[in-house]
Amino acid sequence: MTGPVSPIDLGPYRAPRPHRADAARNFDAVLEAAREVFTERGFDAPLEDVAERAGVGIVTLYRNFPTREVLVENGYIVEIQAVLAEAAASLELAPWDCLTRWLRSFVGYLGTKRAVATALDPDSEVYRACRAALSEAGTPLLRRAQASGDARTDIDDDIARFIMGAAAMNFASEEQRQRMLDVLFDGLRAR
Questions:
Q1: What predicted TM-score, i.e. pTM, was given to this entire model?
Q2: How far apart are alpha carbons 161 and 92 in whole angstroms?
Q3: What would the pLDDT profile of 86-125 be if each residue is shown by its tens digit?
Q4: Which domains does the chain have, with CATH numbers?
C-alpha cells in the first residue's frame, strides 16, 4: 500500500532553500549545525556558534534564517518530515508491523528532540501544522492495524498520549527502551 502519508504540505512553512549548489550546502549546514548546537547547549546558544559550526559567516546564517525562531522552526520541520517519511516507508509492511515500526521511530524522535518542541510556540502556525501532519500520518497506520484485527479498536487519540508518555520516559539503555515499548505495544494489541 502506498500513497500520501499526509495531505499537509509543510513546504510553505519552510525558509526557501537556495537553488545554487554552494548556497544550498550552506543552508543545509546551518540547519545541521543548529540541531547540534541547540542539542548540546540549548536554544539560548549564540547564533554565532551555529554559524561557526556550519562553516559559514553570521551573515549567511541570517540571510537564510532571519530570526532564531525561523531557524528553530525550520530545524523542527526537517525533523518532522523525516518522521513523516518513516510513516510512508512503513506502509509497505503488514499493518501491525507498520504501526509498531512507525511508533518506535516516533518515540525515538520525540525522545531525542523534546528540547526542540519546547523551544517552539505551541500556538504558532508551524507547530500546529507539524502536529496535524503527524496525526494525519499516524492515524491511517492505526486504522489499518485496527481493520486487520491487530490493534484494539477502542483506542483513538489515546495513542498520542501513549507515545508522548513513552517518549518522556528516561531509559537506562536503548535495549530497555525497546523492551518497554514491547510491553506498551502489548497493551495496544487486540485480544
A1: 0.78
A2: 26
A3: 888 888 899 999 999 988 888 877 766 665 666 778 888 8
A4: 16-66 (1.10.10.60), 71-191 (1.10.357.10)
Q: Which residues contact 75 (CB under 8 A, 6 or more apart)?
A: 31, 34, 35, 38, 116
Phi and psi, residue 29, nearest 5°: -65, -40
